[in-house]
Fold Glycine--tRNA ligase.
Amino acid sequence: MAKNEDPNELKKIVSHAKEYGYVFPSSEIYDGLSATYDYGQYGAELKQNIRQYWWKAMVQMNENIVGIDASIFMHPTTWKASGHVDAFNDPMIDNKDSKKRYRADVLIEEHVAKIDAKINKEIEKAAGKFGDSFDEAQFRATNPRVLQNQEKIDAINARFKEDIEKENFEDLKLLIEELEISDPVSGSKNWTEVRQFNLMFSTELGSLADGASKIYLRPETAQGIFVNYLNVQKTGRMKLPFGIAQTGKAFRNEIIARQFIFRMREFEQMEMQFFIKPGTELEWYEIWKNKRMNWHKSLGLGEENYRFHDHLNLAHYANAACDIEFNFPMGFKELEGIHSRTDFDLKAHEEYSGKKLQYFDNEMEQSYVPYVVETSVGLDRLFLAILATAYTEETLEDGSERTVLKLPVQLAPVKAAVLPLINKDGLPEKAREIMDDLKFSVNVQYDGKDAIGRRYRRQDAIGTPFCITVDHQTLEDGTVTIRERDSMEQRRVAASEVSSIIEKAVDLKPLLKQL
């Protein structure tokens, strides 16, 4: 399901999402609010279905992983202990001419990505020339242009990594100037100094301003898991290794919030913290890398659309980290992060709270602070990945065109639509009878307005996998027509079999069994 590159593709997806009830600009009647969006009637259903598949795969399928739902508001010392108060910053740089603000690290990463694209172009050209005999590894190791570009990338990355680690923002600006990176909007290279910007939203807890306490909207959901580690371990009688999963909202005051729902100030995470014996973290890190990649691939969005990207600049809590990147309409971007967080979080909370957060190992007959491997996927980003891959414009054999969302059938907001051919002769009543039977097991829609072809197109546009048409023959022999969204094939089946056919087609069990 790989998609052709189209510079207008994201605009088409944004437009389609609004027109068909998936995503609306927030507060639109007041001209909107930057980088905030509301999920419409179909978007909310799709989001819920994605969340449910993640939860079932992560919690239901693993007897040593449980789920919680922690509060968004947390004691402010939580964020001091986690390092967010002191270290949750992005390096920002402004262009003096366009007055636009950018993340300095992103500007450099995008420059590196352009060089990497040149390497991939050379490889694609050579692969086309030599066919099956092409050896990519040998080509990378010997081709002068590839080696030259890779040398550039390595040099930039090494310097960039050192600048970030040492917070050498003067050299970071110098690097941007030396690479002749220009403002994407104006083309200007007239940059300000690089400076840090903290991303946390703060508010006040209390009825009176002078007696209120400053607290933060959580910038991640992980800390809610860490502060509940001991509660879950004791009440659940959990033994290492075990995991705690959670989905929920997080908030970051992103200066550069853009690219539709890819980067927002209010977003939802699906995270799991896996608590393990110290010394086993890198082994579990590799295990969870593979497990999470397999989960993503099970959605059928195309294996070529995924890749791992190792972090050059490790967070203060990590000893290994990578992203699963997805080929969005705007290129490969982070979809999920897998991090070996060591024992940083639990030790920090021990220190700041004065409470022991240790695990007693019966085999070793000693207590220790567990290490943690984290998997964290952005639900909104996954929503965008699925929507973007599903969006398809087709020209049919008769020359007509249709726009269809080829969503994974298990995740589609509406699983089936029941359509009476005409609104008389007892057909609406029979259609309602079928719908009333289906609605106990799947989300189903009744659609009796307009010509049948127009109704098919409408259901294609919202991604409904099956349309069930009730006609006069239904009244004679009890059969209906089932039309499949992707192939548009139609077949007659007994109305009594419709429920089992639909339920089997949209069941999550086959997907879960793949894992």
About this structure: The domain at 89-197 is CATH 3.30.40.230 (Herpes Virus-1). The first helix runs from residue 9 to 19.
